[in-house]
């Protein structure tokens, strides 16, 4: 299907009343019932309509599709394992389905790699140079980095960026029945998961052997923080101290990339024409 405004393939079904009556629930069913309320658009034209930076919007699109593929595969794999428990043969169809979602995920990863290759920036160079940071993690960071016109977050202070990404220790847990303001203070769950989960794991694992060298910088932050806490609070559970040390490491990591991104946003504007 082609985009309504240009020759590219349509990837988004844009909801025309997005400003007045935001969509709730399922896009597809809505489009089937009310085709007049939707336009099929490519990622670039869609970003234009919403006034967002197209590259970021494309990154987000493939991040989301990749996450969906991972959860679809997890569900099927759990079903397959379940059949083993009742001594039933696993139908070929399910095995193929699992493979299909794996392929889907790999396709999205490739697409993210490609999008990042096209974009050349100090921040990308810095991130790619860190041991333990995967291309997918770079994509998350770029996609969810606030831009200048997002005034409510912006790159004002590292503390604000940490809060935006869900690392504010005073607003960590999301509960049911929270007000909109409270939810905002919890930050972006998707970044919190990426930072404290995948990125923290990778930094600790992959940088261990570089401990004591510049390439082991973040591991060393984690290690010394952990040692300090163990001495200070021997009564605390190990798992608690482990979590806090990882959090400290991620804070330092986010602070570092805050300053690089800020410098780039202030200085790089004229050169690239990007906001
Ligand atoms: Zn288009
Ligand atoms: Zn839209």
Main attributes of the structure:
2 strands; globular; single chain; 12 helices; 275 residues; binds zinc ion; mainly alpha
How much of the sequence is in beta strands? under 5%
Distance between the ends: 31 Å
Proportion of helical residues? 55-70%
Q: C-alpha Rg, in Å?
A: 22 Å
Structural class: mainly alpha
Q: In terms of per-residue confidence, which ranges show pLDDT below 50 for 5 or more consecutive residues?
A: 269-275
Ligands (ions, cofactors included): zinc ion
Q: Main beta sheet, described?
A: 2 strands, antiparallel
Main sheet strand line-up: 1-2
Number of helices: 12
- The best one-word shape is globular
Q: Could you explain the architecture of this structure?
A:
With 275 residues, the protein is mainly α. Among the domains are: 12-50, no CATH class; 153-275, no CATH class. Helix content is 63%, strand content 3%. It has twelve helices and two strands, in the order βαβααααααααααα. The chain has helices spanning 27-33, 43-50, 54-85, 92-118, 122-128, 135-143, 158-164, 180-186, 189-207, 217-232, 238-267, 269-272, and strands at residues 12-15, 38-41. Strands 1-2 form a two-stranded antiparallel sheet. Helix 4 (92-118) crosses helix 6 and helix 10 (217-232) runs antiparallel to helix 11 (238-267). It is globular and about 65 Å long. The model is unreliable at 269-275 (pLDDT under 50). The chain binds zinc ion (2 copies). One zinc ion is lined by residues 3, 5-6, 8, 41-42, 44-45.
């Amino acid at each position: 299907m082609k985009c309504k405004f240009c020759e590219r393939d349509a990837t988004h079904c844009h909801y025309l009343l997005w400003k007045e009556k935001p969509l709730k629930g399922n896009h597809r069913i809505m489009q089937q019932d009310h085709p007049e309320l939707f336009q099929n658009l490519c990622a670039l034209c869609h970003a234009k309509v919403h006034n967002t930076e197209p590259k970021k919007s494309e990154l987000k699109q493939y991040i989301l599709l990749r996450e969906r593929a991972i959860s679809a595969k997890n569900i099927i794999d759990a079903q397959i394992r379940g059949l083993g428990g009742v001594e039933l043969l696993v139908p070929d169809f399910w095995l193929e389905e699992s493979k299909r979602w794996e392929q889907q995920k790999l396709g999205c990863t490739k697409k993210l790699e490609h999008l990042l290759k096209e974009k050349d920036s100090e921040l990308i160079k810095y991130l790619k140079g860190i041991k333990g940071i995967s291309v997918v993690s770079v994509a998350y960071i770029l996609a969810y980095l606030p831009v200048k016109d997002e005034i409510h977050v912006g790159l004002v202070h590292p503390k604000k960026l940490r809060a935006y990404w869900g690392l504010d220790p005073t607003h960590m847990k999301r509960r049911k029945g929270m007000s909109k303001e409270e939810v905002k203070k919890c930050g972006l769950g998707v970044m919190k998961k990426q930072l404290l989960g995948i990125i923290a794991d990778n930094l600790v694992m992959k940088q261990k052997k570089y401990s004591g060298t510049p390439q082991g910088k973040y591991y060393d932050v984690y290690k010394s923080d952990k040692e300090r806490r163990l001495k200070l609070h021997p009564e605390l559970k190990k798992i608690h101290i482990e979590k806090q040390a990882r959090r400290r490491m991620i804070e330092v990591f986010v602070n570092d990339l805050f300053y690089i991104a800020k410098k780039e946003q202030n200085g790089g504007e004229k050169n690239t024409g990007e906001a």
